[in-house]
Design brief:
Low-confidence stretches: none
Helix content: 25-40%
Largest sheet: 8 strands, parallel, barrel
Oligomer: single chain
CATH superfamily: Luciferase-like domain
Number of helices: 9
CATH topology: TIM Barrel
Amino acid sequence: MHIGLNMAFPQSSANITDVALLAEDLGFESIWLPEHPIMPVHTNSKYGGTPDGSIPDYMSDLPDPYIMLGMASSVTQSLKLGTGISLIPERNPLILAKTISALDLYSQGRFLLGVGGGWLREETEIMGGDFDHRWSQIKESILSMKELWTKDEASFKGNHYNFPPVKCYPKPFQKPHPPILLGGSSNRVYQRVVEYADGWIPVGLTLDQVKQGMDHLIALSEKSQRDPHSISVTVYGQPPDLSILEAWRKIGVNRVIVRLSTTKEGEFIAEMNSIAEALL
């Protein structure tokens, strides 16, 4: 079972190249960066990670994860680089496909595309997404990017995205494309994963709920004549507790992403060292 790090990485926290080098040296398999391109000043949406639903200040100070991961790739050799998660309803798939291809190519196949629909309606709508239909947007975005990644001349016709035959290079290093991991906890996520993704990122579920979800994925895969082993499970945002990680390992998850509790400058490096000492 692989162990990665979830980093909410405001610009003031630390230098991403220093953090990536340390993560690789300490033996972590991967780093995962979230994104919020903008943060609305006024919102009625509630954040699930605070008791009162308030949105932490650091969320308005997150650099673009693709640029940060590109910087990380330039100083590392084996560290995998993941978005955790990318809000692709807020991104044009033509531009995103090229960004991902370049990042995967120049990192020599180390990129992992973690995808989610987001929770902040106002952000999605300001960025041009359709919040109520964001999962149909995600499906079309992924399917259109697969066309761009795998064909010399690609076109797509959908309800949200349409483009005539185009050429889009470079192609990704990984074939046919980087792994696509869907974040989600609703019952619909399992069919989505089996239909057009390569892995599942459960968030906020108990061990028993994840095990049930894994069983459901196996059943749906077999029904769809897909190899269940082609679908990975990455449990996100776990505390750095060895007994908890062992419990996840026993039920067969492929990867656990441990969360850093701090976003403060000077504390990032110290916490990474302490987590590695406890877990690796």
